[in-house]
Amino acid sequence: MGHPIVDKIREAGVVGAGGAGLPTHVKADAHVETVLVNGASCEPLLSSDPYLMENEVDTLVRGLEAVMECTGAKKGIICLKGKHVRAMQSVRAAAERSGGKIEARELMDFYPAGDEQVLVHEVLGRTVPERGLPLQVGAVVSNVETLCNVAHALDGKPVTHRYLTVAGEVGRPMVVKAPVGTPVPEVLAFAGGAAISEYRVVDGGPMMGKVLPDASRAVVTKTTSGLLVLPPDHNVVLRKVMDPATVRRITNTICCQCSRCTDLCPRHLLGHSLHPHKIMRVFAHQELESEIAREALLCSECGICEKYACPMLVSPREVNAQIKQILMKNGVKWPSSGQETESNPFREERRVPTSRLIQRLNLEQYDTHPGYAGEIKPSLVRIPLRMHLGAPAVCVVSEGQHVSCGDLIGEIPEKAMSARIHASIDGVVESVADGVVTIRG
Ligand code: SF4
Ligand code: SF4
Q1: pLDDT, averaged across the chain
Q2: Given ligand 2 and candidates 269, 307, 317, 350, which is best to mutate, with the most ligand atoms within 8 Å of its CB?
Q3: pLDDT per position as a tens digit, 65-111
Q4: Enclosing domain of residue 395
Q5: Exposed / middle / buried, residue 8 (Cβ in 10 Å: 0-12, 13-18, 19+)
Q6: Cβ-contact 278, 262 below 8 angstroms
Q7: What are φ and ψ of residue 383, in 5° steps?
Q8: Distance of alpha carbon 292 from the chain centroid
Q9: Is the CB of 261 under 6 A from ligand 1?
Q10: pLDDT tens for residues 403-438?
Q11: Number of folded domains that form the chain
Q12: 372 and 383 share a domain?
């Protein structure tokens, strides 16, 4: 038996809403001094977290206090950018009400302020060791919506819905609440439909999001922070769909070894041994067993090198992602010393302002702070049994079974790291196939 709060988080199927979906009961089962709330919302165009901080701050604080209680943390710090004026007012007022237990911290408007290692450095002045976790410097970092879901878990309400931003080439850009499993075409239709005939949909932000291979079959998951509709030849899309052979050809022929990618790399600036320009060199010669190639394991894939730093339109991020995949498949590990590193003396001057990033990405014409437009009520949801890091949940319902919103449909397999899954609408289980439970309302 763990801490009763950790048990409630596990029962409710809470996973990290801002990243890869680490089950939150795993993260909350720790002892730290500080819980940082990551409200940086640093990906251009995404704005559901500022909406929640403005309108659901009491829920957020309740979730934060619960995680502070189960981790033994004495301090909770809600970190957000001052440009979100109304969210900042709400958070400051909540901090005052907490009597000093919770603090509001204003972040500079740069990317990637929300990279958890960058956030830890900005707020606590500590550096997470290479390939390490904030835990190693006494902190847990949690996303805004994750903590709201923790608060609901305390009341026995599981994760059934997701707040996300719909932006780019749509009729009405918006923040919207959708049941998990809502088909992407329904979300786009709710936002007024695509405003152009040919388009691609990015799941997530323009920097770290992925282009959906087939948006007509895709659904909202627990980790869908946004859906961006962009022309197929938009710079953001083209850099995400380049095939590996083209990446290699461009790297071999175009990289001029100017080292700008290294100069601006946020992880390099934290003092980590990551030198993307050197990795480009060894990648060109396919020396993937070298020490330098191993540095790719330290890359967060933030995309600064690819979309902002490189004057030659080369993609160190993609090169690192390819090398990482090969190294991890071969079981290669980074020999971390576990020591904090010393940050680069030029780190502060080299932070990339979000406004310049938006210009560079050619996103200036899009609404960067769309408002909340309500909740979608789809007639059918397709809920994947894996929306988190770890093993897929085991389906516990069968075809023809009636379910209500919040009923358990996927259980954590024995002794595995996983997360529970719940029905997100009332209805009948239409099918269970290929790791997906389809419910018709
Ligand atoms: S910034 Fe571009 S051209 Fe310069 S070293 Fe890095 S990848 Fe090569
Ligand atoms: S994507 Fe590029 S800039 Fe970002 S951490 Fe990796 S190498 Fe550094």
Answers
A1: 95
A2: 317
A3: 999 999 999 999 999 999 999 999 999 999 999 999 999 999 999 99
A4: 379-441
A5: buried
A6: yes
A7: -105, 115
A8: 27
A9: yes
A10: 999 999 999 999 999 999 999 999 999 999 999 999
A11: 4
A12: no
**In the predicted model, is pLDDT for residue 303 greater than 70?**
yes
Give the whole-angstrom CA distance, residue 317 versus residue 315: 5
* DSSP category for residue 130: T
Q: Give the C-alpha distances (Å, rounded to integers) separating 198 from 47, 115, 210, 217, 365.
A: 25, 32, 18, 17, 18
Residue 310 beta carbon below 6 angstroms from any ligand 1 atom: yes
**Are residue 290 and residue 387 in the same domain, yes or no?**
no
| Cα 172 from Cα 13, distance rounded (Å) | 31
Determine which residue's CA is closest to atom 8 belonging to ligand 1: 255
Which residue is closest in CA terms to ligand 2's atom 4?
302
Instruction: Among the bound ligands, name the one nearest to the CA of residue 315.
Output: 1
251 and 344 fall within a common domain: yes
Q: Is the CB of 309 under 6 A from ligand 1?
A: yes
Rg (CA), the chain: 21
Enumerate the β-bridge partners of residue 76. Answer: 35, 102
Q: How many CA atoms lie within 13 A of 174 on its CB side?
A: 19
Q: Are 113 and 81 in contact (CB under 8 A)?
A: yes
Does the Cβ of 273 fall within 6 Å of ligand 1?
no
